[in-house]
Every structure is written in structure tokens, then in C-alpha cells.
Amino acid sequence: MNRPFIEARxxxxxxSGVRVLTDVSLSFESGEVHGLIGENGAxxxxxxKVLSGLYRPEEGTLLVKGEPKVIRSPSxxxxxxxxxxxxxxxxxxxxxxxxxxxLGREPAGRLGxxxxxxxxxxxxxxxxxxxxxxEPTTLVRALSVEQKQLLAIAKALSRDAGxxxxxEPTAALNGAEIGRLLDIVRGLREGGRSVIFISHHMEEVLExxxxxxxxxDGRVIATRPSSEISESEAVRMMTGRERIQKRLRSALDRxxxxxPGKPAVMSVKNLSHPKYFxxxxxxxxxxxxVGMVGLEGQGQxxxxxxxxxxxxxxxxxxxxGSPAAFKTPADALKRGVVxxxxxxxxxxxxxxxxxxxxxxxxxxxxxxxxxxxxxxxxAREEVRRCMSDVKLSTDDPSRMVHSLSGGNQQKVVIxxxxxxxxxxxxxxxxxxxxxxxxxxxxxxxxxxxxxxxSGIMVVSGDISELLLVCxxxxxxxxxxxTKEFEAENADREHIMxxxxxxxxxxxxxxxxxxxx
Amino acid sequence: xxxxxxxxxxxxxxxxxxxxxxxxxxALAASESFRSPYNLNNVMIQMAxxxxxxxGQSFAVLAGDVDLCVGGVxxxxxxxxxxxxxxSLSSMILTASLALLIGIAVGTANGILTSLIKIDAMxxxxxxxxxxxxxxxxxxxxxxGYIPHAWMKLTEAKIGFVPGPLLILTAFVxxxxxxxxxxVVGFHIRAVGGGEQSAYTSGISVMKTKxxxxxxxxxxxxxxxxxxxxxxxxxDALSGTPFSLDSMTAVIAGGTNFSTGVGSVVGTTVxxxxxxxxxxxxxxxxxxxxxxxxxxxxxxxxxxxAAALRTRFTEGGR
Lengths: 516, 318
Fold this sequence. Notes:
By secondary structure, chain A is of the alpha/beta class. Chain A has helices spanning 44-51, 74-80, 97-101, 116-129, 145-158, 175-190, 202-208, 231-239, 246-251, 300-307, 329-334, 344-348, 355-359, 377-389, 406-419, 436-451, 463-469, 492-499; strands spanning 4-15, 18-29, 33-38, 59-64, 67-69, 82-85, 163-167, 194-198, 211-216, 219-225, 264-272, 280-285, 289-293, 314-319, 322-324, 337-340, 368-369, 372-373, 424-428, 455-459, 472-477, 480-486. At the A-B interface, helix 11, helix 12 and strand 18 of A face helix 9 and helix 10 of B.
């Protein structure tokens, strides 16, 4: 066995008290391709950020070539021989290939004059190594995605990286390009380098890797030689068993069944966008919670945005039986459609303003006469009522939103939406970055809203969350709804397989609407 | 009550009020000529111009933008007034209305360019300033023109001991405060400044809001131009130049933070008073204008540092 290039021992990482990596012990050996798989949010990217010096773990140690090291920053990681190739390559389009490879380390004579002869000959040698046949003087903006990918690898090699981390390197490549990339990866392995390979395409991972590690909920579930693990076994390990507290389970029990008889509050027909999604049709009934799930970047978020007037799309949306065409979120609000965004700090809140101002943001006109706001005691009481409806931890409406925890900030966003008296609520990642207690509050709140007669859609990457709160779950793959599950008799494994496109679409997407 | 005092001390304008208080007390104690009623009256009249234009600037900064063309608007308005105004009342009213319309139109154009075509406000308003300055110089190469005596009298009016310009300023401070803190438009301005995307997702029209904020900035700049024309008794194409930056100084020193939607016009007005007052104090102490520039710059640094410390303190205290 080769010696490990980098080794993690008992590494844990917390974000504001929430554990995102737990006791991770892993070794990445020289001359090894190591596949890393797991659900969205299983901790893959956190682990990578720890290895590349972006995050510092609270517990545990990292050993580089057998020596314990604290990786202080990405540049320190590069010095130690860790090269990370991000999905968005860190390349500057206006500069040449060679300049990009040696950015910040340009070979220079005295007086700081760049020695272009040395620069270009060094660059040429490395470009050959990754079989990229371009001139070192080519501008990066003229390169294809595949060429950029290879250039990013060459850049890592120029720093003599002993470990190269590839985050979804094949995501934007076609079949032939993927084949060539995998050949390069094999070349790196033969050159004695260690490669961490992350991909959503299971076959690829199993094909290229020597060993595979499965992460789930921030823990290492297993590390196995790729030859000894099957696709279905890997999926099973990624999803794990149901782990839901009984209390929550019973509280969320579907007391009122929406049933097929109830009228559709929203129906969507052939919603299409040239880039993100195609022919999306479904309907949402009163009192129903419909989940939408997919791997990152399959179009589910964009579908939600189109429903909210934040993205143009063709097709038809009907609300309460009458057609709705939203050009802006303001239009959607007028028809009772509200959106709780995943990026609450950028899209949901004005952080430096207080709770009252945030809660009333969408309803200022209703709270005013002739443009002048009613700020009396009654108005403040109403804000307080909204605050207690969502179980906010404070009852002081003048508190600044940025001083609240993530869970409470999310509750402020929801309070703002409730103030509009919505009939349809669209949630995107409602519990991302929120601690467990607040998560439960939010699940119960969503259920209560549905029981009150609203139609609710939830987009989330967390399958157990969807199984917990939803009545139905739609799976989105490559911009289409490929499968529909009744949450009652769905299981994680089948949903996962559908998300990964491993299961053939069993139903015609047009038949998914359910309420027809 | 204690809680009230604590909150008052933590408002964004607290540092500038504190600094201004100290400077004012020191100047009153140190300089006899400064504390003469005649001079104090003079300071009040002087500060009205910067105060008015800074109110407008507050609207732009609170909406998350800046307005660097308030100086250009002032220049154009003074030369327009000095070219068109005749002795008749109707002429004065018409010219003044035209001037205000010019200000609002320029502001609206700035708002459209920044929100619809999404050119950075810094660039848009800097360009507008250049255009306006050029136009003003083309209209009137050297200071001059005619301003009716009655119009000039407006600035000398007094009610009791209180100079008229101070009353006008106070009225507009109150109006601005009301609009920014008590109306839908004001809240929309703060929301857009505090988080444009969040405001948009909440159903607020970012474009309308930005246009309103810039139009307010233009309106106040035009008002300042009219006031200056009366005080100078002439038009001057270069009279507006210092105001673009001075008004920014007043707004920031007054405790308004960039891209947070937080800040009060009271702080801005106090800062405008301090900036104008400092010049006057320095004159009475015989400090050269060159050093006045240096000290003005230092004041800005101190005020902004104080605001930053306040933010850190209040966030740490939570």
C-alpha cells in the first residue's frame, strides 16, 4: 500500500453550533484516485474546503505526508501541495493560459520583469502533460469548457500538487470529453499523484476510482475498494435509514388528507424555459404540500422562480382556475403567491433593518393611508402577532434582523410572507443552515399552513425533510419532472435512484399533474 | 426610560451629534467673535445650502446609490435663475418652478439609468454632473446675470430672532424625516438600499423606488440652487462644484451607512452644520483655507470611524 499524501484524523467542523462534519477520518494516498460520494449536504464540499484551507476544523488533525499541519489558507494549501479544481474554474478570462497557470508566481528577473521565455516553455511542458494542444499565449476566454478544465488541472500541476481535488469535473462535459478527462486522471495516478474525484455520476466514480468513500450527514459511512461495491449498495449507503424523531412524526401526521377531490389551487401546464426546464406540468391542491427534489442544478430551483414571476417561462399557470402571468414578484404577490428563498440574507431580508420593517416589507401599502404609514400601537400589535405566529424567539419588533440566529431569520422571512395572507407558498430549502429545534418549528409551521388551506411547494435537496413534510414528491432530472411519489409509500432509495436518473421514467411526464 | 436613553445613544447619528456638540462648545468658549449673535446668525444662513442638498443626498445614499451630480444641478439652476428671473412675482414663481422641474428631471433620468439599464449610480451621476457643468458654463461663462431684489430678500427674512433660511431648512428636515420614516416610499427606499434583491422578491419595484430617491436628490439640489442664487444675487456656473462631495461627507459623517438603508436626516443635518460651522470657526481662528480642507477630511475619517465603532459596539452588545 502507498503512503497517504494527506490524512484526516477525527476531523469535525461546526457552523454556529451545528455539526457539519463529525469525526471524519480518511486517508488519500499517493497514486490513488479516491471517489467521494454523498447526498447534497452530506459534507463533501465542507470536507474539500477543510482540505483546501478555506475552513479550519474545530476538532481533529490533518497530516500532510505524515506530518500534522494546520492548513491556514488556500495559498498555504497550495504550498503544501493541495490543488483544488472548483466547478467554476478560478481562471481569469482576459489573461493567457500561461499567465493563468503561473498567476502570482510568474518567473521574473531582477526588477520584476516577467521572463516570458521561461513562462511559456514551462507552461508548454505542462499543457502537453494534460494533452491540451493550445499555445501558452491563448487567451482563456477563447477556450472551451473542456479546455478550461484541462488548463485548471495544468495550473494545479504547475504548483506541483501532490493531491488534486476535482469537484464535479465532468458536469459540463459530453461523453467523448469525459472519456478524455478520465484518461488524464489515470495519467495523474500513474505519475504518483493523489486525486479526489467528486461526481454525481455513479458509474464514472466507480469506474475511475481505486477506492470510494461514502459520506452521509457529515460522517464517513464507509470506505471501500471500488471493485467491491455496487451502484445500488452505494446508493443505499448514501441514503441510510429513516432517522426521524417520533414526536415530530406524530405531530406532522397527515390529519387532513388533501385527497384528489379537492380543487387545484394552482395548476401548471407545459412550463418551459430554453435553458433550465422543459414541459413541466403538475397541479397543487388546497391543503397540499408538494415537494420537488433533484440533484443540484437540475432546474428545480428555476421552476420555483418561474412560478413566482422571477424567471420568464413559456407555458401556462392557472391559479384558482384563472390564468396567471407574472412578470415580477410583485405580480405574484397580488395573486397570493409568496416565495421563501434559499438565500435568505440576499433575497429575503434587509439585514440592517429591524424585525418590524422586514415583516412589513411586502405589505407596506396595506399598512398605510395615502402613502403615510400607520405606525401606531395597533400596527405594532399586528407585527407582534405575526412574530408569535411563527414562534420567533424574541418579542421585540425593533430588534435588528442581523442579530438573530439563522432559524429566527428564516422565521422573519416566513412572517413577512404570512403578512400577505398568501394562498400559495413556495419554499426553497426552508431549513438550510438552521439548527434542529428551529427546523422542527418550521416543519410544523408549514404543515399548519397547509391545514389552514394553503397550497405549498417545497424545493429541497434533503430527501428525509421532504418525506417528513410533503404529501407528494416530484423528482426533477435534467429539467423535467421524471417521477412522482406519494410520500406515504415512497422510500429514500427509490427517490435517490430517480434523482440520479438510474430509474427509467415510469410515467409520462404529462400525466404527472394528478389533479386532472 | 433607561432603555430609551441607551437606544438614543446607539442611534446612527449619535456620534456626529456628540462630536458636533463638543466642537460647538469649544468654539463658543474659545472665540469671542464666533459667539457674537451676528456671526451665529451668519452660520445658520450659510449652513442652509449644504443642509438642503445633503437632505437630497440622504435619499440617494439610503436607496443604496450616490448622487454626484447635485453640484451640477445647483450650477445649472443658479445660472438659469440669473438668466430668466424678472422682477415680477409671476416670473419668480415660474422660474423657480422650472428650476425645480429641472432638478426632478435630472434625478429621474439618473434613476432610470441606474435601475433600468443598471449603470452604476457612481458612473451615471458623475457623467450627468459633467454634462450639467458644461451646460451651465455654456449658458453663463462668468458669474453674473440678474436676480430680482425681492428674491434676494427671501434669504434675509426673519421670524423673531430666527433667520428664515434656518426655518426653511427645518421644515424640509421635518418633511424628509417624515417621508423616510413614516411613508411607504421611504420604507421602500430603505429596503432597496438595505437589500435590493430582498426588496424585489418582496414585491417592491426597485426601479420606481430608485427613481423616487434620485428625483428627491435632484429636487433638493435645485432648491439649493435657488437658495444660492438668492444669497449670491447672481448666477455662477461653478457655484455648485463643492456640493457634490460636501453633501456626501455630510451624509456619511451623519451616520448613514452605505448599502444598509440605515441612517437619519437629523444626523445628516447636524453634520452639515458641523462642516459649515468648522469653516466659520477656522476663519475666526485665522486658519488658512488649505488647512481647512485637511481638517475637513480628517473630520470625515473621525466621523466614519466613530460610526464603524458604534456598529461594532452595538453588534457586540447583542
